[in-house]
Amino acid sequence: MANRRVTVLIFGGFVTAVAAAFYPIFFHPLTHTNDYKQIQKVNRAGINQADVQPVGVKIWSDPFKPKS
Fold first, then answer.
1. Using CA atoms in the order 21, 22, 24, 28, what is the torsion angle rounded to 10 degrees?
2. Whole-angstrom Cα distance, residue 23 to residue 15?
3. Are the C-beta atoms of 59 and 49 separated by less than 8 Å?
4. String of b and e for 14-40 (b: at least 16 CB within 10 Å)?
5. Is residue 66, in this structure, part of any structural domain at all?
6. How many domains does the chain have?
7. How far is it, in rounded angstroms, from Cα 47 to Cα 44?
8. How far apart are CA 13 and CA 58, in angstroms?
9. What confidence score (pLDDT) does residue 66 get?
10. Contact 53/59 with Cβ under 8 angstroms?
């Protein structure tokens, strides 16, 4: 019985460590999109994307934006 508890604690600790590592990478930006959009707006203020984009690479628009 104690052997199962140790196994569950080890795997539970591993899952907790992975979740803690993924939170700032994936979940925080996903839940705070407006903050990141404001930061990008400030950082990209004077940049023309066509000047810095390599030749022949298509410039993608927002995939979630409805097409007009």
1. -150
2. 12
3. yes
4. eeeeeeeeeeeeeeeeeeeeeeeeeee
5. no
6. 1
7. 5
8. 44
9. 66
10. yes
pLDDT in tens, 28-67: 888 998 998 998 889 888 888 777 777 776 666 666 666 6
Token pair, residue 8, equals 């569950």
User: Is residue 10 included in any domain, yes or no?
Assistant: no
Q: Provide the sign of the torsion angle of the four alpha carbons 6, 11, 15, 17, taken in this order.
A: positive
Q: Give pTM, 2 decimals.
A: 0.49
Tell me if 36 sits within 8 A of 44, measured CB to CB.
no
Start-to-end Cα distance in the chain? 63
